[in-house]
Amino acid sequence: MRTIKYILQKEFIQVLRNKTMLRMIVMLPLMQMLVLVFAATYDLKNVDLYVVDQDLSDASRGLINHFEASPFFRIHDSSFDLEDGMDQLKKEESDFVLVIPPDFERSLVRDDAADVQLLVNAIDGNKATLVFQYTRGIISAYNKHIVMKWKSLPEFNPPMRVDTHDSYWFNPELDYKWYMAPGILSILVTIIGMFLSGMNLVREKEMGTIEQLNVTPIKKWQFIVGKLLPFLVIALLDLAFGLIIARVVFNLPIEGSLVLLFGFGALYLVGVLGLGLFISTVTETQQQVMFITFFFMMVFVLMGGIFTPVESMPHWAQQLDRLNPIYYFIRIMRMVCLKGSGFADLIEEFVSLTIIGVSFLSLAIWRYRKTN
Amino acid sequence: MKQPNYDNSELNTETATGHLSAKRIPIITVKNLVKKFGNFVANDHLTFDVYKGEIFGFLGANGAGKTTAMRILCGLSSPTSGELMVGGYDVYKQTELIKRNIGYMSQKFSLYEDMTIAENVRFYAGIYGLSRQQRKEKEDRMLKKLGLEPERNKLIASLPLGWKQKLAFSIALLHDPQIVFLDEPTGGVDPITRRQFWDFIYEAAAEGKTIFVTTHYMDEAEYCDRVSIMVDGRIAALDTPDALKEQFKSEDMNGVFLQLARSAQRTE
Prior knowledge:
The structure holds two protein chains of two kinds.
Chain A: H1 2-17, H2 19-39, E1 47-53, H3 58-69, E2 73-79, H4 82-90, E3 96-100, H5 104-111, E4 117-120, H6 125-151, H7 176-207, H8 209-214, H9 220-250, H10 258-281, H11 286-303, H12 315-320, H13 325-339, H14 347-367
Parallel strand pairs in A: 1-2, 1-3
Antiparallel strand pairs in A: 3-4
Helix pairs in contact in A: 1-9, 2-7, 2-9, 3-6, 7-9, 7-10, 7-11, 7-13, 9-10, 10-13, 10-14, 13-14
Chain B: H1 10-20, E1 26-37, E2 40-51, E3 55-60, H2 66-73, E4 81-86, E5 89-90, H3 95-101, E6 102-105, H4 117-127, H5 132-146, H6 161-172, E7 179-183, H7 191-206, E8 210-215, H8 218-223, E9 226-231, E10 234-239, H9 241-247, H10 253-261
Helix pairs in contact in B: 1-7, 6-7
């Protein structure tokens, strides 16, 4: 144990003396929380709508008014000509075009039904689907509205209706930032842990100081643990810092136990740092470490379910995700912060992260060679 | 070249008579050491003994295989074949025991540049398991000897190379190793510092430590008790500097070295 104490002491002296590193440790959480959480949003607002109203009737104006009243849409411009609408889509000046045909009101009155056409720019499929859903919502609201207005004559019975009342659990206001902040925090902790530990070990190789350590009777596990703990502590400090920012700036609820959150943080970091250290045992330069670590980061983050729901990935990708530590950690962060999940709800995550952590760490200890 | 006055000093006569007397105890035994990297044979059947308390010079042109052999003896690299004992321990099986008993100073400077002298000492003393008390004593004695007491809390990076080298040597001796391996310890330092450095080496040898040193400087070869000269991965000559000069009919070690090195096939 004493040996590890001396390694820890040395690592902390070196980190605290490295001004660039210190600045990163402080700036990274600030930047990520204050910029990324706002930027990485799926909230659909201010969709640019282009209206081609060929009917110019009361009914068509009523429909357009419904769109205008919605917070999601912004009427960009309008015209009578469908060609103008197509043009707008091609130039990406509008996101979608609503075409109201010339006989809209007449059909509505005579046939009790009328068609409108929606042209949606579907390059971003996700966004297109959302736009389509919102549009349907608005049109059905308009439907109800005219049914009420036109058919509420005394001789008609009021239509039978089933009313649905929506209530959203765990994030009642559907604040996207509450969803993103725990995810971004997971990325933050991963970057700090994986890069710092990997770079640090390989730097000793570059400087040649590792040779001097390798001729000492230091044990392999002592060395790896000594290299792991300092960065685990630093990453957890950054997690705390990030959580404070999220709490203060976005009013992120932290429903669950902080002890649980940090306990899982530490467990997660053992795996991530283990992988970082393993990478640095198989590389010779900081460049190589950067390159390989970056590759793993990309895969982990994009598959981790922060931006896209894991449930919509193909089955094989979901199976692959079982090896992805960040997948579990993002889930844990969201569940503990937003739902207040306790340890009993997270047994599966606990077991998986433990297996991943032990494997990566063992791999790093096994691969670290004092004798080449 | 005239031998430096160390030869007449009390310290050196002791080591000199040490290896001339009958009780020469081998502390490093190497039999048929072979090290291959793929098809390249870095060490081709090396066989030699190093005796307790002697200063053993390991000479050779760049790429002759000196550093490779030294790294194997330190347990940093594993041999392809051969029998090797260092300090009474087997190089294959008892690497960690060897490491308790050796000090090593590599070609690359290896103290932490971003830490102070005191912090480096504390770190290495800690790793070797010295107590706080032992460390304090050693640190004080060492800094006094080096005249670095006022610089105790200065960063290593701010020191001139010569001081760094002397410091690295002293730190390699912190845990009282039986054998000290020095890989070109005086590369790139000025002649005065080199002389001081050799003072330290003699002092350590006088305390009974065995010194295994590689060097490019032929004047330094003259300071060694015995010298081996490697050519193309083999030991081409091994004897006292005087005997070698006589054998190759040369005024100085430089002449001996040039005669041997000229036959080299291998280039860097």
